[in-house]
Amino acid sequence: MTRTGTRALGAVLLTGLLALLGAAPAHADGYRYWSFWQQGTGSGSGSGSGWAYATQGPGTLRPGDGTAVGFRFAVSKDSADAAQPRAAAGFGAVCEGTPAKEGIKRVAVVIDFGTAADAPGGESPPAARTACAQVAPDASAAEALAAVAKPLRYNSDALLCAIAGYPKSGCGEKVDAHGTPDAGAAADGTKDEKDQGGNEGGEGPSAGLIGGIAVVAALGGAAVWQARRRRRG
């Protein structure tokens, strides 16, 4: 094979590689789900000390008396990208009219149903709401939420899917940049809010793309080796 032929073959292989890259499947832009937040303590605080992404799920976190928890429905890639509740209301603002009772703790619950852009098709987000939950001293954040915002909906993996009946269907499903559900995602798909890394979470190249690049590279290497062998012969 002449140098001209080798260059021509290399150009063909490069064209094939670029076509393969262009044909790579698009990955989901994020997940549509309820994220869970905590706010600073202090019954005298009207706006708390800012929202922080909860390090535990609402089923295991047991907020103390005088604290605030928040829930936000939105499309996000992971906890670092999650949208926090837009309301800055803290315990003081939400529970100021609720007197303390012996054997009962008060937890401010802030619920942000998100924007129209984050809503599933055919649904409109309700207005944000706040409520002062009065629950047992050992109650979890999920129990505080249930006390003020039924009906709640969970999936088989105990992922919170709906608050006050919103949304009507779906659960942590993958969506693209336009908010359209991934065709391969189940209507009640699950999502781990704290672990969406790696290829399975749509954050890296697909195995098919990597395999295709390897094939093209191997073909290119074989062509070069064959050309050199013929020149030597």
Round the mean pLDDT to the nearest integer and report it.
75
Uncertain residue segments = 12-27, 42-47, 189-225
Distance between the termini: 11 Å
How would you sum up the major sheet?
A: 6 strands, mixed
Q: How would you summarize this macromolecular structure in one to three sentences?
A:
With 233 residues, this protein is α+β, with helices and mostly antiparallel strands. It has helices at 3-22, 91-95, 141-148, 207-232, and strands spanning 30-39, 51-53, 67-76, 105-112, 129-135, 153-154, 160-162, 174-175. The longest helix is centred in the last third of the chain and has 26 residues, at 207-232.
Task: Walk me through what this model shows.
Helix content is 25%, strand content 19%. It contains 4 helices and 8 strands, in the order αβββαββαβββα. Strands 1, 2, 3, 4, 5 and 8 form a 6-stranded mixed sheet that branches. Strands 6-7 form a two-stranded antiparallel ribbon. Strand 3 (67-76), helix 2 and strand 4 form a beta-alpha-beta unit. The longest helix is centred in the last third of the chain and has 26 residues, at 207-232. The chain is elongated.
Secondary structure topology:
Blueprint: H1 3-22, E1 30-39, E2 51-53, E3 67-76, H2 91-95, E4 105-112, E5 129-135, H3 141-148, E6 153-154, E7 160-162, E8 174-175, H4 207-232
Parallel strand pairs: 3-4
Antiparallel strand pairs: 1-2, 1-3, 1-8, 4-5, 6-7
